[in-house]
Amino acid sequence: MHEGLRTIFLFLLILDLVLPIASQVHAQEGSPETIGQKVVVASIEGVIGVHTEEYVKLSIQYAESMNAILVLTLNTPGGLLDSALNIVYMIDDSRVPVVGFVIDKWAESAGTLILVCTHIAAMQPGTIIGSMQPIEYNPATGTYQPVNDTKIINPILKVLDEHAGVKNRNVSVIKRFVTENLNLGAHEALELGVIDIVAKDINDLLRQLNGRTVTLPYTNKTFVIDTSRSEIIYYQPSFRVRATGFLSDPIISSLLMTFGLIITLFSLLSGNYHSVPIGLLLLLLGLLGSGFNINYTSLALILVGSTLLIIELVTPGFGVLGITGIIMLALGIALSPAGGGYSISKEYATKFLYSAYISGGILGFLAGVAVYKVLKVRRKEPIIWTIVGKKGRALDDIGPNKEGFVIVEGEYWLAVSDEEIKKDEAIIVVAKEGHKLRVRKA
């Protein structure tokens, strides 16, 4: 009897341990996850470059932290191939669905590469995609040349085959974007199986996404999209991303490089070295716009700016070196990488906000008092020390035709007088005439 009860007890204990694990494994392997209560929208506009990589990376991290769908809106003529490829790899590694949505005008070249490699691709009516043949920029002539080298073309075709093909897109048509510079409108792309949706706007896109099932190919994770009550969150780029995006414009970066080089060369050749920092600043900004690493550029700006300020401190006056150093230092700090952020509770955020207000108020009050004191001193009438009227003692006999020394407040002065003054008599200063004093008896 006791042996049978013991067997039943052990069986129930094992069952109690195994069932939760089995159900969890089944849920992980078979049950799709619902997603779509929150939708993060990030906008890729203008030329695609290293700044776009950072923006997309932060956007994906933000969407993952909120378990939200990420919608990448694209309105771009293209950009750097390396940056576009890096973004494709980021999309592959994403733990949430990434939707590409071409809006306003187009997503040509590198923009098309990003679009066809998203988990769901969509376009607005009237937009176009295509023209993916790489081009090479010659800074010496300022011209662009198409690239036909198979060492460059074939890897791009393979990327499209692997990354777009795994998402069930029409790879044969997509490859013609590279080999023939094919361009397609929204409805053409939909009919040929290049994209999945044609939508008028974000709301229409979310309506058509509702109920779809999407599987992330490289994580084998399946999601059921429910956008019936979605909260749309627009993820704004940081100053670092906006600044580098502005500098990435080919015209602006070329002008900065040209003027920076001219100013630097003329300064060195003419011996006017004070203009060299300005040329270096323009050159660094031009390099940043041309695709140079943002972190290295910000570090260079901080180092050069700090050096210029140190030089300015040990030299008299304050001029071009100091001003340029401050600008470089400020830009270097502003372009420095920021953290990806932390997930904190609402209560902690509220306490932190109140603490910041109190600390800021105290610092602001102290700064205000300091400014008030400085202004008060500056507005005060200047106090000029004068020796006239001071009393002293004659050290020599002094007369109308005889000079002698006097001591006034511990200082020795050569003095003259209109009257006879004997040694050790008290005197009073009536005037200062150059390096001499005119005195009389006190």
From TrEMBL:
In terms of InterPro entries, this protein maps to: ClpP/crotonase-like_dom_sf, Membrane_assoc_protease, NA-bd_OB-fold, NfeD-like_C, NfeD1b_N, NfeD_membrane
Where it sits in the cell: the answer is: Membrane
NfeD1b N-terminal domain ranges (all copies) = 39-183
What is its membrane topology?
Answer: Multi-pass membrane protein
Q: Which residue range or ranges hold the NfeD-like C-terminal domain?
A: 387-441
Instruction: State the UniProt keywords alphabetically.
Output: Membrane, Transmembrane, Transmembrane helix
Please identify the protein, giving its name as recorded. Answer: Nodulation protein NfeD
Domain NfeD integral membrane: residue ranges: 252-366
Query: Which ranges form a coiled coil?
Result: none
Query: How is this protein annotated for GO cellular component?
Result: membrane
Say which species the protein is native to. Answer: Fervidicoccus fontis
Pfam families xrefs? NfeD, NfeD1b_N, NfeD_membrane
Q: Determine if Transmembrane is one of this entry's keywords.
A: yes
TM segment ranges: 251-269, 281-311, 317-340, 352-372
Is Secreted found in the keyword set? no
